[in-house]
Structure formats: structure tokens, C-alpha cells
Amino acid sequence: MSRIAVATTSQLAAEAAREVAAAGGNAVDCALAAALLTINTEPGVCALGGSAFITIWSADEDPITVDGNVAVPGKGLEEAQRGRGAVEIKIDDGGGITTLVGPGSVAVPGTLAAMEDAWQHYGRAAWRDIFEPTIRACRDGFPLSAACRYYLGYSGDIVFGRSDDGYRALHREDGTLLDSGDIVVVPHLADTLGAIADEGARIFYEGEIARAISDHCRDGEGSLTREDLASYRAIEREPLLTRIGDWQLATNPPPAVGGAVLTAMLLACADLDIERWDSTALLQLIQSQRVCLDFRQRHLDLADDVGSEAARLVESARDGSLLTRWTSASTVHTSVVDDSGNGCAITASSGYGSGEMPQGTGLWLNNCLGEIELNRRGLDAGPPGARLPSNMAPSVARRKGGVLAVGSPGADRITTAMQQFLINYLQLGMPLGDAIAHPRVHVDTSGEVINLKAEPGLDLPEIDLPVSVFPGLVMYFGGVGAAVFDSDGGFDVAADPRREGGVFNPDA
What we know:
The chain is an alpha+beta fold and 508 residues long. It is built from 16 helices and 20 strands.
């Protein structure tokens, strides 16, 4: 039996990882079990019909990132048949979010393909064992988390009232939305998960489930076809590698943009020689965020060749020219390490959710084509099969005798939350929990005016940006979860106090 440490979104998910470890699973198996449970028990925040990236660094192999990102649909359709079937809505969260929902917003899901690929190459437990905790939770019902209830307070009707089964899962008989702590039972979901556990992911991509998904989308003039699902494959990619002190960090490579932006932010601060965050150090941190996020908007989001543009960003950070050259909500994460020195980090997303649940499946589908601020190309975002942009950056770091798995949800705050945690822990030497809980800043480039958002307790520098200081630590700034194993010091694990989280530490 492997000894593992887990940081994830709920204690229920942490216990799922623990159960799979007891059944003989390693870090990858346990991460998959915890992530699967989180994905299926965080309605509104995430869903199985979305995307995932999995970064794995085993003790005796080079690191890899399994790309299970959503892809552009539309294989087998005429061009005139694409780009339809979506509805624009505004969600009154965070000052107002405009997004597209409906069948036309659904991109080709990749989560299950990535999970199965990771398990086939690195897992040790039975595929069925990985699913059992989630099947049980979905059959018996699971409590609605506070984070889910908060988001559903804005989207429960306008988004997640679009399907009969989805509406029934989240509402009482009198039509009122469930409260935090109420038990959620999603119709048909346990049966669907059981079928996938028995037959593998291909039933989702080629079998009865695939037929239900594609027929549902096409009936609503969406672009997702059976050919899209049947041809989808997870892709194993070589991660971006960055040295931070005596640690080597592996993170998500292009065509996703999150890992490249994170890498550039870290390189831009590699020369920091400080013991704490004073105003001078914070100014450099803020500048690194500003130029990297500006570069992303100007060059990465609409690039035909994301890889070459990302390489240009990283190289300018590596050669020291970044700070002068370029100036001008729904993810979940799981981190697991084991005592063999294996590390696995999984970040998954379904966008804001399309609200679409094909009849009889219990599966909510993503709205990743409709995430306007991320997919700036629109519903017809490129040739069918092309991967969409992503902020996700699950990462694993290694040094002699030690391994760290880490990641965060949080849209465009993923990279800035990760940057600050990694500098806090790997450069400044803060204890793990302190490194996560330390106040953060984020340069917000999402609106017409760039502004700086900050948590209280920081010695902020004088800058030429409007500044908003929040009253405390808030979910807006991400939700970092990290697990560490060191051959001398044993396990350490911590979840972000900004979000509900679950941990398991065998040394605690």
C-alpha cells in the first residue's frame, strides 16, 4: 500500500484518494479518484463533460502533461452549419459575466480521455476502483458545497435550469434552489459512471453515451458531432521546465497558455533576493504579471501558432528583457504525492457550464466555446479538432529526495496565484501552509481599464494603476492546493483557506 498526501477541493474527495491508496493505488490512481469525485460533486463549478490537464512526474521517468483540453467541434459539418445554437446571457457575479450557453457553446470534452490515458500509462489500481467512491457518492447523494451554492445563486436558473434532470437535481419540488449542505442526487449520473467504470472511456466517445451527447447537441443546432467524439484523443506532451532554486518545475505546455504565462512570470522574478515581500519586490511581481497578461491578450489568445508565441514570451523572460520589451470561475484542482516519489497534479474545468444535460445521462456539458473572455475567436474558433485556449497549469516540481504537486482553480488568477505560491515556498522558504495563505495581488486585464486587485496586509508600492484592496482573503484570488513528499521530512499538505478544501496527510 502506497502512503499518499492529498490536497483537493473537498474532504469527500480526499477520502476517495485514501480509499484507492488502500486498494493498492499510487499517486496517479489516487489523484484520478479524488479529481473524479470533485468533478462530479461540484455542480456549477465543474462537470465531467469538460476538460482536464494532468501533469505527472514519476520517480523514475521524465515528466509528462496529458492534454485533455476541449477541442473545436464540427467534424462532418458544412461551415454554414457551425457557429449556431448558443444564447448570450449575463451572470451577475463578480460585477457581471457575459457568456454563451446552450448546445452551440459545447466543445468536444476531453476529461475522461485524459484520465484513462494517465491511468493506462501510470496507474496501478483497477479502473473500476478509481470510480467506486464517486459512483457511491452520486448514488447516495452528496452535500452541496458553499462554493457551488454561491455560484448557483447566480446561475442555478439561467444556466442550470436549461435541462429537466439538471433542474431537478438542484431545486426542491417548490422550485427553490437547494442550500449549502443540502443533499444533491443527479438523476442517472451514478449509472453513467458505472457504465464508464465497466466499459472504459470509449463508451463516452463512441458508445451509447456518445450518441446521447451528440444527438442532444445537434438537436439544438450545436456543432458537436459523433465524429468529433469518436476521433478525440488525449495527447501526451512534454511539459515546460523551469528551475526555481534547487527545484525543477514541470507545468502545462502550449497550446494551452497557462503554463507558458506562469513560466514567464516565474522567470521574470527569478532574480528576487528577498526574505519578505516589501514594496520593491511587490513592484517587480506586479510588473511581471502586467506584462505577461498583456502579452497573453495581445499575442497568445488569437495566435495561429500558440507554441511559437509562447516560446517568444518565455525566451524574453529567460533573457531578462521581458519587463521592458512587452510593456504596454470555474475549475477544480487535485494534488497528490506518494512515498515512492511520484507526483500528480490534475486541473479540470467545464467553463461556466452550458446548462445542457443530455436526457438519461446525468452529465452536464461544458460551455468552453462560449467563454468569451478566454475563447476570443468565437463559436467557430478554428478547424474542428483544434484545442481551445486554457489557463490551467497543473504542475509538479522535483528536487533531490523531494516532490511537490500543486495547482489552482481561478480562471486568469490561476497563473498569478501559482506564481506567488511558488515564489513563497520555493524561493522564500515559507512553510507550505503559510506560502498558500499569504496575501496575493492580481493585475486584472479583463476590462477596459487595467487595475490591481490585492488582499490586505501587503506593503503595496506606488503604481500607475487603480488599486482595489479586498477586506480579507477571498476566493477570487484562486485556491491553491499542494502536496509534498520529502525523503527526509516526510509528507506535508495544505489547501487554500480561500476555498473549501480537503486534505489527507498520513504524517498528521
